[in-house]
Amino acid sequence: MSLKADREQLAELRKDIPPEQKKSNDELALYLQLMKQGAERPDVVHDKFSVLMEKKRTAFRAKVEKLRQNYHREETQRRDAFLDQQKSRRSSYTSSKHTTEQTRDFYSQLDRERSDYFAEERDRRSNFESEISSHNKDFESYMREKMADFNEQYRLYSKQYNERQREKEKKATTGDSSTQYKNINEVPTKPLESGE
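The structure assignment produced for this chain is given below.
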């Protein structure tokens, strides 16, 4: 038997499945794996699912934190480059003689550029924060949807599991007609003999 060939065949079959259906199938497989085909206690299944959800949340938070760190680093690099450029222009300008009007115009131009730069950076930061907020909302919506799906499956699973457990207990206490034990009403009785 070759597992590699089987996996390749399954991968080939999955190519034709739309991505949304693939995702749905994978989630169903995950639920079935958590439930161990009905052998796992419901509370254990719920705990396993909670751990998976927390791992997803942790991974998402780490991703957002990394995005923030990258943005902050790039923002700092842009700001430092801009301020260095401004400083260099000032140094270059002050190294030679200029009229008062030229100096006023030059510094006025630098102030406008600085104002424009920081306004643009505020807009860029605002757009970044809006994007992060949108990702957060999408993620939370996705998590609520998955939680609702799981809760629906979990209710059904718990009900079936509890019914199976009751059946097992019932068979254990009353016995099964297919076993060597019989119901007490089916056992023939003998009258008691008096000891005279």
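Interim note for the steering committee: The first helix runs from residue 3 to 14. The chain has a mean pLDDT of 82.
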